[in-house]
Design a protein that fits this description.
This protein has about 190 residues and is of the alpha+beta class. Helix content is about 15%, strand content about 30%. Strand 11 and strand 12 form a beta hairpin. The protein is elongated, with a radius of gyration of 24 Å. The model has no long low-confidence stretch (mean pLDDT about 90).
Amino acid sequence: MEEIQQPEESALQRQAKPPKSAVREIAEAVLVAVALAFLIRFFLFQPFYIPSGSMEPTLMPLDRIIVSKVNYWFSEPAHGNIIVFRFPEDPSRDFVKRVIAVGGQTVKIRNSQLFVDDRPIPEPYLPPALRMGDYGPFTVPEGKFFVMGDNRNHSDDSRRWGVVPRENVIGQAVFLYWPFDRIRTLGGT
């Protein structure tokens, strides 16, 4: 068996590379770590915290979640997804809600039952014995999403301020990582 050998550096190459100082190596490692964190946060995944109880019991105030920006690169938000988006009336604020209907669908609530396109929608994530006021019918414009909080009687959502344009969607909530005793994935319905 033949041993593989690395080519030796020439004397000229050894002279051309000054040794790196420990400070320089640490600075380079920190710079690379910061650049990677920036890329991950702005293009792939971003952490958020939940400031209110509008998504109870699914998400509680001060819960910490991870939002995937990758999930909607090749697909669109669908019914049941929990999304984070820039609030249409003040894009400096981020909201978290559940997608109820997409463009072209009609939403209405009768006797505390949600209907989308006149079909009753089971919602096992809602608080037990929740009573909702009647709403609609409302047809969602194309390219927009109708969203509601799971804590319907204490949620400021599409019933009040309208729909969410596609360009306002930041991503899908995929993972609850804090508090530790509630760690879990956040799927659809």
